[in-house]
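Recap quiz, item 2
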Amino acid sequence: MTDRTLLATFDDESDLLAATRAVRKQGYSIVDIYTPCAVHGLDEAMGLKPSRLPWVCFVCGIIGAVGMLWFEHWTAAVNWPIDVGGKPWNALPSDIPVAFEFMVLLAGFGSVFALLGVCRLYPGKRAQVPSLQVTDDRFVMVIDQADAAFDLSTVEQLLEEFNVVEIAERVTSSSTSDEEPNARRLADMTSGGQS
Amino acid sequence: MSSIHADDPFRGGHIVDNTAEVPGTRAPLVLNMERFGEVTEQVSRVSEAPRAPLAWYVAFAGSLGLLSLLGFCVLYLIFTGVGVWGLNTPVAWAYDITNFVFWVGIGHAGTLISAVLFLFRQRWRTSVNRSAEAMTLFAVMCAGIFPLIHMGRPWLAYWMAPYPNSRGSLWVNFKSPLLWDVFAISTYLLISAVFWYIGLLPDLATVRDRSQPGLRRRACSFLSLGWNGSARTWHRYETVYMLLAGLATPLVFSVHTIVSMDFATAVIPGWHTTIFPPYFVAGAIFSGLAMVLTLMIIARKVMQLENYVTLQHIDKMCKLMLAMGCVVGLAYGTEFFMAAYSGNAYEQFVFKNRALGPMKWAYWTMVSCNVIIPQLLWFPAVRRTIPAVFVLAIVVNIGMWFERFVIIVTSLHRDFLPSSWAHYSPTTIEIATFVGSFGLFFTCFLIFCRFVPMIAIAEVKGVLEPRQPKSNGEAHHEEAT
C-alpha cells in the first residue's frame, strides 16, 4: 500500500490562503498545511470546524467551581463545623474566592491537557515536519494524490498561479526501500494529522 | 561589551521613532524586518550565541551575589527565629508583607500584557509578552517567599493545603482571606506558567528545527512536545490560547483583589475600606508596567532587540502607566475624602497620621513617586526619551514599594489604644532579605534572557507588515469566489 502526497511550498501567507481556497474548490483534498505562525483565516479556507475545546474548558470550570463550593461547605459546615468569628458555618460569600480560583485552575489545566491530548503532543515526541523550514519561514500544503480526480499537471498548473515555490511528490510505502529519507516520517505525519 | 550580532545587517543601533499615529495607517510594530526568516534568525541568535554579551555576565554575577544574600538571610531567620525582624506588637506585619504585595503586584503587568491586551487585540503586545510573562512568574516566586518565611515554621507550609490529616481532620479555614490568598497565588503561578509555556511551544519547535544535533536540539525536541506547525494544531492552539487569556484576565483581577482583602477584611482603620480591591489592582498594574519598562529598556539594549521593542512599545506602556498612576492618585484622594466624610475619629486619625505623623516621609515619597512625578508622562517628548522613561520607571517602582509600606505600617503602628502605640523600623536582616529577593528575580530573568527566545517569534511573524505585493494570490481568490 502506498500513499502518494504532493507537497506544495509557499513563502507567502496570502498565496497560501488563496491556493488553499482554489485547491479545495477544485475538489482536491488537503491532508494538512504546515505554517510557522497562525495564519488568520486558514481554518475557514481549509474548512476546519470550530474547535470543541471551549466545551472542555466550560465543563472543567463548572466541575471546579461546584466541586470546591461543595468541599468548602462539607469541611466547614458538615465534617468539622468550627465557629469563626461568629460567622455562619455555611457562609457562602466567603466560599466564593476559593471556588473561583479553583474554577480557573481546573478550566485552564483542563483545556491545556485536552489540547495536548487532541493534538497528540507529549514530551519527547518526535516532531513529524514535512520540511524543517515550516517552523521558520515556509508554508507547506500537503495534498492527497490518492484521489481519482487527481491530475498532477493540472494541480501543478493551478499551484503555479499562486507563486508556489516548490512542488515535491512524496511516495511513502512500508515496503519500498528507495524512498526519501524523511518520506517515512511524512507518512507517519499524514496519518496522524488526519485524526 | 562583546556583540552577539556583530555582523547583523538588521540590527537597529539607531532609534527610530515609530510612535506617530497617522489616521488610516498604522506605524510598523517591528522595524527593519520583512521576512519571517529574519525574525527567526535574530531572536534565536541571542540564545544560540556561544557567549552572552559581557553585560549579561556582569549582571548575572551581581544577581547571584544577591541571591546568596537572600539564602543567607532566610537561613539565618529560620535558624534564629522571627525575632531577627523588627516586628512588634501592633506592627506584626511590616517589611515581609510589604515585599509580598510589592512582588505580587509586579507580576500583574505580565498578565495584563499577555492576556488583557490579547483580548483587546493590542497587537503591539507580541514583542513584550514573552518577557513580561516570564517576569510575572519570577515575581510571583519572589512574592511567595515572604509569607512562607514569616510562618516561623516554613517546613509545615503544607498545613495550608486542605488534606485529610491526623488532627481530626482539622480542615483549613476557608473563611480566612489569608487562605484565599494561598489559593489565589498558587493558581496564579500555575496558570501563568502554563500560559507562558503554551505560548513558547511554537518557538521551541523553531529553535529545535534550526539547531545542530546536540543538547539544545534534544532539549527543545523534548520540550516542544512534537510541535510541527500543523494548521489543525494551530487552529486548536489559537482556541486554547484565547480561552487561557479569557481565564487569566479575571484571574489577575481576582488575585490582587484577594491580596487587598487580606487587609480590607480586618477592622484596622486605614485597611477596612471597600476601595481596596480596585485600588490594589490599579496599583499592581502600575508597578508591574514600571518593572516591565525597567527590564525591557535594559534587555532590548543588551540583547540588541531594538527592532522588536521599539519606541512605540515604550510609548504605549508609558501611556498605560500614566493612566494607572492617575487611578492610583484618585484612590489616594478618595481614601482621604472617605476618612473625612465618614465622621469616624479613628479613620480620620489614621489618615492625618499618614500624611503628618512620624512616617510622613514615607507617605510623601509615595505621593511624589506615584502621582506627581509620573505626570511628566503626559509629554510625548518624555515618553520618547528612553533614559527619562527608565528613570521614571525606577521612581514608580520605589513609589509603589512605599505605597504598600505606608498602607501596612502606618495603619498598624498607631491603632485604637494610644497605650499600645509603637514605632517600627526594619532590621538589617529585613532590608537584606528584600534586597536579596531581587537576586532571585534577576537570576531567573537573566537565565530566561539567555536561553529562551525572549520575543514570541511565531506571534511577531503574525504582525509583520504585509510584504511586497509580489503575490497575485488575492486576485485569484477574487476569481475563485
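The domain at 2-50+127-193 of chain A is CATH 3.30.70.1710 (Alpha-Beta Plaits).
The radius of gyration of chain A is 25 Å.
End of item.
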